[in-house]
Design goal:
By secondary structure, this protein is of the alpha+beta class. It has 3 domains: about 5-100, Methane Monooxygenase Hydroxylase, Chain G, domain 1 (Up-down Bundle); about 115-210 and about 300-360, Alpha-Beta Plaits (2-Layer Sandwich), CATH 3.30.70.1660; about 220-285, Double Stranded RNA Binding Domain (2-Layer Sandwich), CATH 3.30.160.20. It contains 9 helices and 11 strands. The strands form 2 sheets. The chain has an 8-stranded mixed beta sheet with strand order 2-3-1-5-4-9-10-11. A 3-stranded antiparallel beta sheet has the order 6-7-8, covered by helices on one side.
Length: about 350
Amino acid sequence: MIDDAMRNRLEDLVATHAELELDMANPEVLADQERYTATAKRHAELAEVVVAFDEYSTLLENAAAAEELAEMAGPDDEAMFRDEAREGREKAERMEDRLQVLLLPKDPLDDKNVILEIRAGAGGDEAGLFAAELERMYVRYAEGRRWSVNRLSVSDTGIGGIKEVTFEVNGSGAYSVLKHESGVHRVQRIPATESGGRIHTSTASVAVMPEAEDVDVQVDPNDLKIDVYRSSGPGGQSVNTTDSAVRITHAPTGLVVSMQDEKSQLQNKEKALRVLKSRLLQAERDRVAAERADARASQIGTGDRSEKIRTYNFPQSRVTDHRINFTTHDLDGVMGGDLSELLEALIGQEQRQKLQALTQD
């Protein structure tokens, strides 16, 4: 059974949900698009917990009714009603766990779109090939979720690999799902060029950042040094003929973002600013988390991008996430974008740690 404090909080949320529903039908709210959008969003956010609490209450009521019937029933029917009551209470207990998760404080950035960067690490050409495979893995996962993917910039190795790539993933809750992917990913396999059959280890780093909006990050134009130069590599007739490539340096932090994939200098500048703002937002998030004494209780691993988080072992067809001791032998499925089981395990661990932190508090 949930305690009185939790029940009171749930009842308050149910009342708030009902009030928001009335507000959405209010002509004044309907006339104010910004207000209506905010009201509808909050109403939708509360819907899941309201439905779950209603189901929980119904299960308890039905279980209590079955127990009353068992008291009045004859010997032939008593056992049936007792079983029905027990089953209802067991379902209610499972629903109680779900309600606790739904009441956990939400990460305000969870609904954001994502800017994802992948860089080849140690391992030479093999690291570049692995980085390209990681990009395909995330793109396929996003497409399976019907999220849109837009590549912002890429530097390739010329043999099918990439030195680094930046792309955005747009979809509801993208950051909440992908945020745990930041870190060093390690691959163990025999490269195609290895004549001796020896297993090589290579790495690639992944950085997942919430896409920043102007309300999230304020950038003083006076803090920016913007350089333009001629693009290099594929790109059409304008390559090496116009100064379309852009490099933006943020003086206070030293962050540098370069873009050259677009033919227009303005488009490259806009892309670079978007990536810069997302990096600044993530940097501020990391700073705050590092300062809070309880921050580690609500994160998977240390959050350090230098941390080795996962190993992809091709000879054993094994993928192991070292932060949660999760292993699957469906390596082909994972590399093909089937990340659901792995990501759900990471999200589940995050929720358990948050519940533990709340209990300790």
